[in-house]
Amino acid sequence: MLSGCAEQSAAPPENDARIVWTYGNADEHGELYTDNQERLNFIDFETMNTALLCSKPNCTHTNENECSAFGMDNHPILHGGKLYFFDVETSFDGDEVTDTTSVYKAEPDGTNRVKISDIEGLSLLRYTRMLIVGDTA
Predict the structure, then answer these.
(1) Using 50, 70 and 90 to split pLDDT, how confident is the model at 104?
(2) Is 90 exposed, middle or buried (0-12, 13-18, 19+ CB in 10 A)?
(3) Partner of 117 for a Cys bridge, out of 21, 40, 79, 103, CB 3.0 to 4.6 A?
(4) In what order do the strands lie in the sheet with 25-26?
(5) What is the DSSP string of 35-51?
(6) What's this model's pTM, rounded to 2 decimal places?
């Protein structure tokens, strides 16, 4: 066992920066993560309870057309009481390849999904990490 003592730092507190990616997204309240079936889950750090982000109480969470926990596995972010996530589409026109990343906003249970923006030329792949600082990605 190691221990140590130090004076309290006079440095300013850390900003609210955090790293987000498909397989993990933690803040002070809990963490969003994608399981091996690509369903979005949340673990609450206070209670240590885990739940799928699904709006249906009797859902079996096996059908992606019926369960709202599916389809939000690309960089999910809880911010301001809403859930944000991304989708990437690649289109081909002859030799021209264009990637477009769509930004979606939904309720925290995955319902009421709305596309809020398209970003042409950006391919936000699932293994890419994103830095969130305040309201900026």
Answers:
(1) very high
(2) exposed
(3) 103
(4) 25-26, 30-34, 40-44, 50-52
(5) -TTSBEEEEETTT--EE
(6) 0.75
